[in-house]
Design brief:
Length: 474
């Protein structure tokens, strides 16, 4: 894995340092607060360094106030608001200093945009929506079918998952990580384990590293198949929905036969895997059959004129907006941002099993679907290559974090970049866990594709982003 450079910075030096990073083509990834000692707060800023390809962390000790960076890097707005809600920190010069997490529970509402017209209507939709959709309240401001502005209000079921890691053992932490977002169970556990391994200075065995790639790609496959079925449903292709769900189910059954868990749980542990896996010939035969069925399914979708008509030009996300607002994963790659942690910051065995990211430039719903379709082919290929490269050996190494240590883990999940930052106390138990999930980033960028669109396209546009609420409401 890449190096992580931690650097202390003074408040007056932070803004110039960030400006220099951005001018050089770097990008901030997240910010969080923690208390190294009782009564003492410290802010952490994670950035990708374009010159070294390593991660950079700025460490800023504060009392109760810090300079806002949201004007320079708009994606930090939600992080600053989250820190304000959880730690009471004031960010001077913030362009958006309103509650984020507490807003849902306090009943706060966004005021209507200035339109100069009495025709603007206000529609609060949710948090209970149709079917089994996760809880989110969508505040629409619209005229007729024309949406002027959308404000998504999340955090109705904020579970304080990060706080649940505090005081836990390494093994217990892996179980918690699997439950942050159910459809990303393995990726969350993997990222958590890699953060713990960095803090402990341990390296998992080669066989475990290769199996981790195999499992991560199996998770990507069933997620992308679910995505295509859901997207077909929003375009009223009920047969397309049913076929996508069937393929997703077949993928999960393959997972279950290989690992004992449809969602690939109970496998990742700091130091490697809990137990060995033996993918036999019938595993590859089943996977190849699923791959052929996926190709047939995708060809039928892409040949359907009504499906294409609903996706093309729907919800375009501009490349610069995607960068500024922190879009990640297939969403950013569909807008022309060529970023993928598997390639740019390889982990597990991705340095030996490289993944070629899919890329589009249109930034619309169809481009987001095409990226996932191409990623499916890459994932099928990676699983086959990983299986072929497996060599006998152990799958777990001893892993004990050093007292007072910290670690950063990262992975490219089905929805985008995922980070875990872990801090350990003198007894080697966790005192702080920070989770940066892909959906937290993409929910931030999503409204920019809804403003000035129409109601009939909304469901398709939301489905094309493939976000989860649980992944945001940590």
């Amino acid at each position: 894995m890449n190096e992580v450079a931690v650097q202390s910075v003074a408040a007056e030096s932070l803004v110039p340092a960030v400006r220099e990073l951005l001018n050089a083509g770097g990008r901030l990834q997240m910010a969080y607060a923690w208390a190294p000692t009782p009564g003492r707060l410290e802010l952490r800023y994670l950035a990708t360094d374009p010159t070294t390809k390593d991660f950079r962390i700025w460490r800023l000790p504060i009392e109760d106030e810090a300079p806002s960076l949201a004007v320079l890097s708009p994606l930090l707005s939600w992080y600053e608001r989250e820190i304000s809600d959880l730690y009471g920190v004031r960010f001077s010069g913030s362009p958006d200093a309103v509650p984020l997490i507490k807003g849902a529970h306090a009943g706060s509402r966004t005021t209507a945009p200035e339109s100069g017209s009495e025709d603007v209507q206000h529609l609060p939709f949710g948090p209970v929506r149709a079917d089994v959709v996760e809880s989110v309240e969508l505040l629409f401001f619209y005229v007729g079918e024309h949406i002027l502005h959308l404000h998504p209000q999340l955090f109705f079921k904020h579970r304080a998952m990060e706080a649940r890691f505090e005081g836990r053992s390494l093994e217990h932490g892996a179980v918690l990580a699997e439950r942050v977002s159910g459809v990303g169970s393995f990726c969350h556990a993997l990222t958590y384990c890699q953060a713990a391994e960095q803090a402990a200075g341990c390296v998992p065995p080669e066989r475990a590293q290769v199996l981790r790639v195999l499992l991560a790609e199996l998770e990507r496959i069933y997620n992308h198949l679910h995505y295509l079925g859901h997207l077909a449903d929003t375009t009223t292709l009920k047969v397309g929905q049913a076929e996508g769900r069937l393929l997703e189910e077949r993928a999960k059954q393959i997972n279950a036969r290989l690992t004992g868990s449809r969602f690939l749980r109970g496998l990742a542990i700091p130091g490697g895997l809990r137990r060995d896996l033996r993918p036999e010939d019938d595993f590859l035969t089943e996977l190849d059959g699923l791959r052929r069925s996926t190709r047939t399914y995708v060809a039928m979708l892409e040949a359907d004129s009504s499906y294409l008509d609903r996706l093309l030009t729907t919800g375009p996300l501009d490349k610069q907006v995607a960068f500024d607002q922190g879009a990640t994963g297939p969403v950013e790659r569909a807008s022309g941002l060529d970023r993928d942690l598997r390639r740019d910051h390889p982990y597990a065995a991705y340095d030996r099993l490289p993944a070629a990211p899919a890329l589009r430039s249109a930034g619309d719903a169809h481009a987001r679907a095409q990226v996932r379709i191409e990623e499916l082919e890459v994932s099928y290929d990676l699983v086959a290559r990983a299986t072929a490269s497996l060599k006998d050996g152990p799958v777990r190494a001893p892993c004990t974090p050093k007292p007072g240590s910290e670690g950063l883990g990262w992975a490219e999940g089905p929805r985008g970049s995922l980070y875990y930052a872990l801090h350990f106390g003198d007894d080697a138990r966790m005192v702080r866990a920070k989770i940066k999930s892909p959906s937290f980033s993409n929910w931030r960028a999503f409204p920019f594709t809804v403003h000035e669109t129409n109601m009939m396209d909304y469901a398709i546009n939301e489905a094309s982003f493939g976000m989860t609420v649980a992944g945001c409401d940590r």
